[in-house]
Specification:
CATH topology of the domain at 3-97: Alpha-Beta Plaits
Number of strands: 6
Oligomer: single chain
Distance between the termini: 69 Å
CATH class of the domain at 3-97: Alpha Beta
Mean pLDDT: 82
Strand content: 35-45%
Structural class: alpha+beta
Order of helices and strands: EHEEHEHEEH
CATH superfamily of the domain at 3-97: Ribosomal protein S6/Translation elongation factor EF1B
């Protein structure tokens, strides 16, 4: 059976539970049509680059699916009819990725890097020489 990665964006004013119910409904349709959902990842409420139907944020969910093409056509048809779904994208893949997706790994990596803020920035004084931010704070107090 072909393998797909399916991502959909749901409206920002839905609760996480409502998004989970929508995911369960879509998974049920895939199961009824002879397919299966191998992985389900809820990526959370994320900010969008631009507004989609007056929404600045959206709930994002990834489904890794092993199903016939007819099953994917049916869930895409249902998503077009559902006003809670802003966008969806289905991509056929050769094999599913093991472990967490890139979006989930990215959030883990960001948390690790935030511990070290790096070197302090410097500002230039009136003479053009670099001075540390710490020196500026001490002079202004």
């Amino acid at each position: 059976m072909p393998m797909y990665e399916h991502v959909y964006l749901a409206r920002q004013d839905l609760s996480a539970q409502q998004v989970e119910e929508l995911t369960t409904q879509l998974s049920g349709v895939i199961g009824q049509m002879g397919g299966k959902v191998t992985k389900n990842e809820y990526w959370g409420l994320k900010s969008l680059t631009y507004r989609i139907r007056k929404n600045r944020k959206a709930h994002m969910t990834l489904l890794n699916v092993d199903a016939p093409p007819a099953a994917l056509n049916e869930i895409e048809r249902q998503e077009r009819l559902n006003e809670d779904v802003l966008r969806y994208l289905t991509i056929r893949v050769e094999a599913h990725e093991e472990g967490p997706s890139a979006m989930m790994r990215k959030s883990d990596r960001d948390r690790d890097e935030r511990g070290d803020r790096g070197p302090r920035r410097s500002r230039r004084d009136e003479g053009g020489d670099d001075i540390d931010v710490v020196d500026v704070i001490a002079v202004e107090e």
